[in-house]
């Protein structure tokens, strides 16, 4: 149980200086920070009942940095003069960017018209030994004339809405920050609460606010993750709806849109035209024809076998969407985005563009039927379920396999997300041609692998294994995870992009077969694209509709995976993010009930 915050003024703080309206809040925050360990402070900033695995993971990468409070001195100098009498030692005063912008939004003012300073304070050991090495940050807001500021000040002093508890990432990398971010927002009770980059300090911050009553009688469940450096990819992932300018002190509200809604809707309903344009570019081989250089429309039309005027108009559209770059001499060149359509590069999206603008695109003619009836759109349009169709159409099956090869971008990041003991045995269930398993064996030289697949797929994998240095550490086992027994006795089982192909009943067949085969101390690593609700990326939502239209499966939220795993005999332990909104979800078999 957490110790109750002290109600006594810590030794060394002069009560005479506690008459300031913010002094009581400062004293209470000092008591809270000094009266709890870092893990307890973290728990108090997260939702009630958060699993130990979440606390452990944040603690593994972060250390407690400071607690923060928004205060309202008449003059910054007055605050600095009083801090020693409150037992605080000023270590630094710097301008704020992130908090300033939040306050400006709440006041409905331009950021430049609001002045906020970060006053960093150390809690000395003299008289308050429990505070040794701990810090406070006071965000000092200069007065702004007007009733809105008065309301904001009263609201903040009553509710401490900007108060947070900050944990610093010790060795920040984009992957680590994305990992932490996605772990936190995977909790249904956690909401993203802004963030940004402060160039004055080269400091990157993310805020999270948790649903639930405060852990104490005054501090909100609000957490800051901060790191040195700028991480725009992480910030884009974190980007939450901007708060609308409105009444000071009111909670942030979703801004409808700064764009014309009609224009935005037109962008959405014409998106299929862009899909087709990219698919045609892939089928014409435009990216391969361009290579690393630039070419004129006429030259490119001759190389691709296209009509120059029509091709020129297609190129212009592709340039408008950042696939190509139009140069001053009328030539076109690939952008970094467009280079993904080159067929010879790792992670090529050329086959995917062909498939998604062709066979799978036509399936969407049956989407309304699927939504109305629950029947399979692919079957409605093409006359067979997708897996049966590919068995009967080898050319389309080959295109599908080539399209799915873009997942190697994700596969490259999987081995680092696995905790494998030396000499471990890894079984890849439904592992395709072995691309993922070979990466795991390459990064874990003492591990052994087993690829479990159907017969015709195993033959394709045999060719890939033959040229691999890990061939002598990998066995091929023919089987069907719906009807046959799975290899037993391994340390780790991989299930990559399998569960999203199927509805819950089929998934439960696979999971229960795994639960029977796995030792009690083995782990199951599931590679999927979980849906993050309440402002998460739309990419998993799009793939969810794709699975509904072209297969019988679905993408799932973390909560849905947790429930599915529990019904299948597993307990979800951890989630680690991968590129492109993918993730590794780690689970273990549930102990048999005595």
Automatic annotation (TrEMBL):
Kindly list the biological process annotations in GO that this record carries: methylation
Identify the keywords attached in UniProt to this record, alphabetized. Methyltransferase, S-adenosyl-L-methionine, Transferase
Give every O-methyltransferase dimerisation domain span. Answer: 266-341
| UniProt-listed InterPro entries | COMT-like, COMT_C, COMT_dimerisation, SAM-dependent_MTases_sf, WH-like_DNA-bd_sf, WH_DNA-bd_sf
In this chain, composition skew of type Basic and acidic residues spans 252-261
Molecular function, one GO term: O-methyltransferase activity
List each copy of the O-methyltransferase C-terminal domain by range: 366-571
Checking PROSITE patterns in the record gives: SAM_OMT_II
**Composition bias type Low complexity, residue spans:** 241-251
Extract the ranges annotated as region (Disordered): 236-261
Query: Which Pfam family name is an example for this entry?
Result: Dimerisation
Asked whether the UniProt record includes Nuclease among its keywords, one would answer no
| Organism, scientific name | Embleya hyalina
Name this protein carries in UniProt:
Hydroxyneurosporene-O-methyltransferase
Q: Does the keyword Protease apply?
A: no
């Amino acid at each position: 149980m957490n110790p109750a915050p002290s109600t006594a003024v810590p030794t060394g703080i002069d009560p005479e200086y506690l008459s300031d309206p913010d002094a009581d809040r400062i004293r209470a925050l000092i008591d809270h920070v000094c009266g709890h360990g870092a893990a307890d402070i973290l728990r108090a900033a997260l939702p009630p009942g958060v699993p130990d695995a979440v606390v452990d993971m944040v603690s593994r990468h972060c250390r407690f940095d400071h607690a923060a409070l928004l205060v309202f001195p008449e003059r910054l100098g007055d605050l600095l003069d009083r801090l020693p009498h409150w037992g605080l030692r000023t270590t630094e005063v710097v301008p704020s960017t992130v908090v300033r912008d939040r306050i400006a939004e709440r006041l409905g003012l331009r950021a430049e018209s609001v002045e906020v300073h970060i006053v960093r304070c150390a809690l000395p050991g003299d008289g308050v030994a429990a505070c040794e090495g701990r810090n406070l940050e006071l965000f000092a807001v200069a007065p702004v004339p007007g009733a809105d500021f008065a309301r904001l000040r009263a609201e903040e002093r009553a509710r401490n809405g900007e108060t947070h508890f900050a944990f610093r990432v010790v060795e920040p990398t984009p992957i680590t920050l994305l990992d932490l971010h996605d772990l936190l927002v995977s909790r249904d009770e956690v909401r993203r609460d802004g963030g940004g980059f402060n160039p004055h300090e080269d400091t990157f911050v993310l805020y999270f606010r948790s649903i639930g009553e405060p852990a104490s009688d005054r501090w909100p469940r609000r957490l800051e993750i901060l790191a040195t450096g700028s991480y725009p990819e992480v910030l884009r992932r974190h980007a939450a709806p901007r708060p609308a300018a409105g009444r000071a002190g009111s909670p942030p509200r979703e801004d409808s849109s700064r764009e014309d809604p009609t224009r935005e809707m037109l962008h959405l309903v014409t998106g299929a035209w862009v899909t087709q344009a990219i698919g045609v570019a892939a089928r014409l081989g435009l990216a391969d024809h361009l290579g690393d250089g630039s070419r004129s429309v006429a030259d490119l039309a001759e190389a691709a076998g296209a009509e120059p005027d029509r091709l020129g108009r297609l190129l212009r559209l592709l340039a408008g969407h950042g696939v190509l770059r139009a140069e001053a001499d009328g030539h076109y060149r690939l952008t970094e985005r467009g280079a993904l359509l080159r067929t010879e590069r790792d992670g090529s999206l050329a086959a995917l563009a062909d498939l998604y603008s062709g066979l799978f695109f036509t399936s969407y003619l049956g989407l309304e039927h699927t939504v109305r009836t629950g029947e399979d759109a692919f079957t409605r349009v093409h006359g067979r379920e997708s897996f049966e169709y590919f068995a009967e159409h080898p050319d389309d099956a080959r295109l599908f396999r080539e399209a799915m090869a873009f997942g190697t971008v994700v596969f490259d990041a999987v081995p680092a997300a696995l905790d494998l003991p030396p000499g471990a045995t890894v079984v890849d269930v439904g592992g395709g041609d072995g691309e993922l398993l070979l990466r795991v064996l390459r990064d874990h030289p003492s591990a052994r692998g087993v690829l479990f697949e159907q017969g015709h797929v195993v033959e394709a994998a045999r060719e890939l294994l033959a040229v691999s240095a890990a061939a002598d550490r990998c066995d091929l086992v023919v089987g069907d995870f719906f009807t046959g027994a799975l290899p037993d006795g391994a340390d780790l089982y991989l299930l990559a992009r399998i569960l999203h192909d199927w509805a819950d009943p089929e998934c439960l067949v696979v999971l229960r077969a795994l639960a029977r085969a796995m030792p009690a101390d083995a782990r199951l690593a599931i590679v999927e694209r979980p849906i993050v609700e309440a402002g998460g990326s739309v990419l998993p939502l799009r793939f969810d509709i794709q699975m509904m239209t072209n297969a019988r499966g679905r993408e799932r939220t973390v909560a849905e995976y947790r429930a599915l795993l529990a019904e299948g005999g597993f307990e979800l332990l951890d989630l680690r993010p991968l590129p492109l909104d993918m993730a590794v979800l780690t689970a273990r078999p549930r102990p048999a009930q005595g």
